[in-house]
Amino acid sequence: MHFLTIDSSTGIEAGVCHEELGMVRDLAVATSASTREHAEKLTPLIQGALAKAGIERPDAIVVGTGPGAFTGLRAGLVTARTLARAWGVPLYGVSTLEILGLAASDQGAQEVVPIIDARRKEVYAMRVRPMGADDVAVIEAPEVLTPAELAERLRHEPAILAAMSADLYPELGERLVVAPRPSVMARIASSRLARIEAGEELSLDTEPLYLRRPDIHQG
Q1: Which band of pLDDT confidence, cut at 50, 70 and 90, is reported for residue 11?
Q2: Which end of the chain has the least Cβ crowding within 10 Å, N or C?
Q3: pTM of the full predicted structure?
């Protein structure tokens, strides 16, 4: 089974991975660090990833649901929904923070606070811990915090920080630098899909996790 993965919560990433007999391996990743023109840049990245993986279309799509910048996140979700309809394939949504949390768990972290830059000198953060090999359990729901607020919380409730950059608010201290690889996204989606089919009440919907309104509505 081939998965196309899309995440535009921060930068822009498209990837392809293959699942067989419970094992998921990455086939292709195409990225852009740009925080602008997501809609224009995403389609060529998807086409490039599919071409590198040697497939015309996937069997399913997994999209990151944020949190992230309003415009960029919306572009990824709209693109994923459009492609899923056009190809007639299922679409699954997974929080980008949970994706970072599982990537950190793969490096041995047991309790993780994944963080994403929320701009305005704030971060999006949540607290998770591994649940099996292919998913995480949410211990504290995602929220918007200043680095100082997060640092104070970690002083009383220690956990490993995980981010996509070592340069994100260095005053927070050391953190694992992780990459939300396509295989990590697919593993979470596959794990939850199996649990849903077994009767658990879980969600893989693609509603965006904005946490706050876009800048244009502030004031």
Answers
A1: confident
A2: C
A3: 0.94
